[in-house]
Amino acid sequence: MSQSNRAQILSPALAGLNAYHVQDAAGLVKLDAMENPWPWPAEMQREWLSLLANAELNRYPDPAASALAMSIRRYDQAHADQPILLGNGSDELIQLLMMAMRRGASVLTVEPGFVMYRQLATVCGLNYEAVDLADDFSLPGDALIERIQAVQPELVFLAVPNNPTANCFNGADLCRVIEAAPGLVVIDEAYAPFTERSALPWLAQYPNLIVMRTLSKLGLAGLRLGYLYGDEFWVGELNKLRLPYNINCLTQVTAQFALDYADELATQAEKICDERAALRTSLAAISGLEIFETEANFILFRSNEHSAVQLHAGLRAAGVLVKCMHGSHRLLNDCLRVTVGTPQENQQFIDALQGLLIAA
Ligand SMILES: *Cc1c(COP(=O)(O)O)cnc(C)c1O
Prior knowledge:
With 360 residues, the protein is an alpha/beta fold. The chain contains 13 helices and 13 strands.
């Protein structure tokens, strides 16, 4: 097979795509990926390890992960019979949603937004459409509704709080979108632990609404567990696409154990919110920076006087890894995204940033 023929047996969608890139973080203070910086208390670790010791690795896991699904519903104070679908991270659920759409279906979202929506829509051969957020990163309600009416998207994706901007969208605007959409609306609440807002109460009212969550940002990113709530029809249809054992046995045991310690997880999330406020104050005290609103475990900020690309490189050289957003969207010029870490990590970041700005 010749070089030029090789690509021809593949989906043409792949030609224009790059694999999801993750920055090398070896030896660096890792503030790039919205991870929870806190370990579990020693007692909790010990108890968890004893549970793992008894996990039956020779057996297939419960295909429906029923016990874990029940713990999750309890954790979210959802009804015991609320339909739920578990995924190997919410990324897998985004992929399942895209795979479930008919040929030629359209997916509409906002930009800047979560990059996996575009990636997975494209891989699945769907028509991807995006509306730009307003300059202050709020939802452009009228423009979005107009686009919904023009495109008639089968699927609308909105992350609330949004990544990478960290803000929540106005609730009334979200309801207008759900009401105007001819198909499914997915509200991705990956950052639910760090905000009071949620669309969960709307599920009863809107049969075209799916609410998606994850344990990743709560402190279990390495585990890979996401889930979505929707009505029985959607969950039943999506369940046909799900691989039978997508939630492995170690994840089932560990997630269920962690949710038994929901108080500990909530305490960590509160600590992160406190540190978020402190980090925001420290950033705001540095001149030449514009700090955006946040209801997530990260902060987006703009450097008005220095290149974000250079600051990102300088921070890395000083041992701190953040995410450079410059170049990914016109609204993110000279923007950096920093995850809230421990007080020491945040201080290292602030010291390094100040050092760079003084030297420049
Ligand atoms: C991090 C993130 C996810 C992915 O979560 P996983 O469960 O780790 O796959 C989904 N949506 C948004 C908006 C995110 O920021």
